[in-house]
Specification:
The protein is α/β, with parallel strands linked by helices. Helices cover 43% and strands 18% of the residues. The protein is built from five helices and five strands; from the N terminus they run αββαβαβαβα. The protein has helices at 3-10, 32-38, 52-61, 76-85, 96-107; strands at residues 13-16, 25-28, 43-47, 65-68, 89-91. The chain has a five-stranded mixed beta sheet with strand order 1-5-4-3-2. Helix 2 packs parallel to helix 3 (52-61). The radius of gyration is 12 Å and the shape is globular.
């Protein structure tokens, strides 16, 4: 499923849009060195972190999208950098566990 399809079907907020890519897996985490070393390419990265470092790490891991959970919204530097880099940033009110179940069920990953 593409990120745009996922955004539409999930009903999650869309903070930034980027290249419409396939979501091939998911990865949950907030410890950036773990994300860099373990998150697979083209994943939906679920996190509660909302600072500019998230945009930098997202480009390093080549994720399909960032899903901010628990009502987290990007701060202004993160938002500006994500837009500049063409990253998809979505927002969910659910906790990471509930949001990850939705990623798995909708994306069949």
């Amino acid at each position: 499923m593409t990120v745009s399809e996922f955004a539409q079907k999930s009903g999650y907020a869309v903070f930034c849009k980027g290249e419409d890519r396939e979501i091939t897996s998911g990865y949950c985490g907030d410890f950036l060195s773990n994300i860099i070393s373990r998150a697979p390419d083209s994943c939906c990265w679920l996190t509660v972190m909302n600072n500019v470092n998230v945009a930098a790490v997202a480009t390093l891991i080549d994720c399909a999208c960032i899903l901010l959970c628990e009502g987290t919204e990007p701060d202004e530097p993160f938002y500006a950098r994500a837009r500049q880099l063409g990253l998809w940033v979505l927002g969910a009110n659910e906790n990471v566990y509930e949001a990850s179940k939705k990623v798995c069920s909708l994306c069949k990953v």
